[in-house]
Amino acid sequence: MEKRKSSFSLLGMLITLGIVYGDIGTSPLYVMNSIINDAGTMADAKPEYILGSVSLIFWTLMLITTIKYVLIAMKADNNEEGGIFALYALVRTKGKWLIIPALIGGSALLADGTLTPAVTVTSAIEGIKGQQFGNIVFSSKQSSVLIIVTVILLTIFIIQESGTDRIGRSFGPIMFIWFSFIGIAGFLNLTNDLSVLKALSPIYAIKVLFSPVNKVGIFILGSVFLATTGAEALYADMGQVGKHNVYATWPYVYAMLMLNYFGQAAWIINNYQNKAYNHISGINPFYEMLPADFKVFAIIIATMAAIIASQALITGSFTLVQEAIGLKILPRLKVKFPGKFESQLYIGTINWMLCAITIGIVWGFGSSEHMESAYGLAITLTMLMTTVLLHQFLIMKNHRHFANVFMVFFIALEGLFLLSSLIKFVHGGYVTVIITCAILAIMIIWYFGNKRRDAYLAESENVSLLDYLPQLEKLSKDSSIPTYATNLVYMIKLGEDYTIKRSVIYSILDQTPKRARVYWFITVNQTNAPYECNYTVDMMHTRNVVNIQLNLGFKKSQHVNIYIRQIINALIRKHIIDDQTPNYSMVPNRHVGSFKFIIQNQQFQDLGAQEQMNNLDRLLIGGRLLLQNITISPSLWFGLEFSDVVEEKVPLFLGSQTDEYLTEKELKNDVKP
Questions:
Q1: Burial grade of 200 (CB within 10 A; 0-12, 13-18, 19 or more)
Q2: N or C: which end of the chain has fewer CB within 10 A?
Q3: How would you label 601-614 residue by residue, b for 16+ Cβ within 10 Å and e otherwise?
Q4: How far does CA 605 lie from the centroid of its chain?
Q5: Cα–Cα distance between 315 and 313 in angstroms, integer?
């Protein structure tokens, strides 16, 4: 499995256009449409209102996308990886409380992303209504649009499992055509009214917020914010293409986007008094400003761009979830790698959940206009949380004064956008808020459930492995006991002070003794470096008890079967452990014996154990164990489905299991002493 090379090149720039800018690049399909809807009808979209709106778009993209994300956030790369979880992994040592913004931001990003495929594909396909293609005239009914959108989205989600590498190669050229097309279309309309360029002045942006022509006041920012919702995805996708390719392509993308926005603004100003549009709402200036001969091409290329944006969102969600799993923020889910690159992954559970939610949104909202009313609310939370984490990063880099200025400015700016987006709650924003809360609840239960469980175990259920080394060595040599396995492997956490769960030692010694030539205790440590992959070996002054600390980055596969045979062969070659060449084998030159893996699943043993915990701990630990039982089994997670694995259910010991109310009432003994 390779890591995609991300060095600067023309090819890299083309790939960047296809991977990074899908979300933000399709925003011209719906942003100005949403702004007109805020005004009411075309007749209400007066020049002062439109100039102020496009000025707000320009400066929003400048301040949030360009300055915050491209110039500042991309400096906060974690071994070239970006995104809120990669950023959290970089700064988490600065305070335990930083998990809170990471959880809130990550859950909001996943939730709001469910609207991206729905709103982009629907906006693109709505241009087809009433259009004539040769002898075919498409229906003007919205239901026809919804059926086409559903077919497209289903196709996108179905192809995920087989991998999208070949399709992805065409994304860059298509997006280059898309950006060039929208830029040229915007420029041609802009030449009809160059006075629109006055909107480059921030004065127009400020004035429109307080102007009487702006009927929604500050809440217009909720629509303006849609222009920059892809900024967080831009930061998250940095690792796939390299920051230098983003630096090189963003000026071009920014210029094409603004040309199109200015072109739409010029068209609206020239047509807001046009009787054909006078009292019509729901007009999409993106399509209306195009000559009739270009509309068919525009619909096709817009649909392709929307599909690419959807694809980027889906794969981005897979990456985000994989990072969260690696950081122990989400439960384990089965991850596949259908392509030859580590960045090309597939998580079936997430894929079909996204599919169900996205198609539900399409039919629930019914039109892109209604979807726009709900879109963008949750992502403002993600941006605020990223600002908090970036503040810590800048402090970590000894830029404390700049960090404080950065924090105050962007908290105020993004807080303003959040406030303006709150009106969306009653218009459908509650959908993404509900999804955010559901994801956040799962993250909280899993993360803090692990913490509280480990706290209880640390108090009463850990022992020192060193105390049992003599018994393990004696058991290994005891020929009166049948061999259980040549190599007995426990996937368990062994602490730096050699502390280990009591249940592990009990499993080896106190049940039917498990005799093995070599006892392996493998600890998988998640590291902050995304693709780190190394290990340490501690023989503890023995030849048959091995402590392996396997250090894997939060983006690396945890299939230990990939690593374990490499490690044992290296130890045999170095004569650290004895040769295990079997007497009988069809494999020539085989020096490694059989393996048996033991994985322990903890369960509450009875109500008495639960009563020792307070209500919050019972909820967190019980919820964590429930999630453990309904998600992927540890054997599948560690890639051991074809290995000899024994899963032992063990009680979650919580101190002595006694009842203070048990008393002896009477002793009957008929036998004389």
A1: middle
A2: C
A3: ebebeeeebeeebe
A4: 35
A5: 6
Q: Which residue has the tokens 């080896």?
A: 508
Q: Report H helices in 6-162.
A: 10-19, 22-25, 31-39, 47-60, 84-91, 99-112, 115-125, 142-158
Please check whether residue 380 is in contact with residue 225, taking contact to mean a CB–CB distance below 8 angstroms: yes
Residues 6+ apart with CB under 8 A from 182: 28, 256, 257, 259, 260
Q: Which of 403, 28, 88, 400 is nearest to 235 (CA)?
A: 88
Ordered domains of the chain (ranges, CATH): 10-450 (1.20.1740.10), 462-602+633-650 (no CATH)
How far is C-alpha 343 from the chain's CA centre?
12
Cα distances from 404 to residues 137, 171, 387, in angstroms, run 58, 40, 11
3-state DSSP assignment of residue 248: helix
Average pLDDT along the chain, 673 residues, taken 10 residues at a time: 59 85 91 89 89 97 96 88 89 92 93 86 84 69 90 90 65 92 95 93 95 91 91 85 89 97 95 77 84 87 90 85 88 77 75 93 88 82 95 94 96 93 84 92 92 70 89 92 91 87 88 89 84 90 92 80 85 87 71 83 56 77 84 80 79 55 67 56
**Do residues 450 and 624 touch, judged by C-beta distance below 8 A?**
yes
Residue 511, token pair as written in the block: 């049940």
Residue 618 near residue 539, CB atoms below 8 Å:
no
Whether the CB-CB separation of 453 and 602 falls below 8 Å is answered with: yes
Q: To which H or E segment does residue 599 belong?
A: strand 595-603
